[in-house]
Amino acid sequence: MHPFTYTRVSDTRAALDAGRRGGRYIAGGTTLVDLMRETVERPESLIDISGLPLREVGVTERGGLRIGALVTMAEAAAHPKVRTLHPVISEALELSASAQLRNMATIGGNIMQRTRCTYFRDVTADCNKRVPGSGCAARQGYNRTHAILGTSDACVATHPSDVAVAFAALEARVHLLGPDGARQVPFADFLLRPGRTPDREQALGQGELITTVEIPALPRPLRSGYLKVRDRQSYEFALTSAAVALHVRGGLIREAKVAAGGVGTVPWKLPAVERHLIGERPSEALWAAAAARAADGARPLQHNRFKAELLKRTVERQLRTVGGTK
Fold first, then answer.
1. Which end of the chain is more exposed for a tag (fewer CB within 10 A), N or C?
2. Which of 53, 76, 97 is the last residue of a domain?
3. How far is Cα 121 from Cα 109, in angstroms, rounded to an integer?
4. Per the structure, how many domains does the chain have?
């Protein structure tokens, strides 16, 4: 681990002042410290923001849900409002990491976490995300766990967060605070596809802080849930996953929110699946037909071709679980 300076701040103004000077924010540290230990990340300055007042979970005036950036994964998963309004968020969090990590890691840090691509974490391997212009060893290497959606010639690494898939499905917004004031970014625009600049992963400006993740008010009743398919039952990243939320009224699906994880360079919204569901009656045939669109546009690599079919089956299974049949 390389030498660094450490500053602990207790208010947002001090945090922004320090961030403006180029420091890296840290709270739970469950990802950044690992990367520093492996010399993948070498920040010269760390700003500890764990003391900032960003730990509230609440309902907005319009019935949306707001989760503070420093709420831990465990706290968010257990919160009654989260469990009642959006079980998909609680389930995604509870299927992530270990209990010890969930007690430390924050919501803001979780969506900011970097890929688990082995080539990214091997400082001897070519990786455009780590060293721009060096190449992507995964494209010709062992790529079983890599992305089939949203890839580019520069990068095929998946985004590892489970709860980010739920946020993508629910069309959340990320509230930011920076030297130039506050702003909001749709979750779909916050995490960036690699394109030609895979080293730029989030739509954050210099010194900006995540303050809150907000889920908009959605029609009620809303059934939701998260399914994660992985090589082992616990403490493993997804091969595929599906976050599904359905509003069924009068026997018809009025709203459908569906996103996938483990297959995209970012959490992958599935609008073709959603469109196939709207206005239809829940049925086994509908779930299968909608899920058949889940892998549209996939570009599999040598070792992960199985993911396209696995994704369709994952989405179909979760549609059936959430929506049932009549």
1. C
2. 53
3. 18
4. 2
* Amino acid in position 248: V
Q: How many residues does the chain have?
A: 326
Q: How far is the C-alpha of 235 from the C-alpha of 231, rounded, in Å?
A: 10
Over residues 219-231, mean pLDDT: 97
Exposed, middle or buried, 111 (CB in 10 Å: 0-12/13-18/19+)?
buried
- Give per-residue pLDDT as tens, 279-316: 999 999 999 999 999 999 999 999 999 999 999 999 99
For residue 43, the SS3 value is: coil
Q: Which residue has the tokens 């500053």?
A: 7
Question: What pLDDT score was predicted for residue 320?
Answer: 98
**Contact indicator for 92, 163 with CB cutoff of 8 Å:** yes
193 assigned to some structural domain: no
Q: What is the mean pLDDT of residues 146-165?
A: 98
Nearest-CA neighbor of 224 among 325, 86, 95? 86
Beta-strand pair 252-261/240-249: antiparallel
Query: Quick one: pLDDT at residue 58?
Result: 97
pTM, full prediction: 0.97
Domain contains 180: no
Beta-sheet pairing, 223-229 with 181-186: unpaired
- Amino acid identity of residue 171, one-letter, is E
Residue 34 sits in which domain range? 1-53
Q: What is the DSSP string of 129-190?
A: TTSTTS-BHHHHS--TTS-SBS-BTTB-PPP--SHHHHHHHTT-EEEEEETTEEEEEEHHHH
If you search the block for the tokens 């009224």, which residue do you land on? 249
Residue 307 DSSP label: H
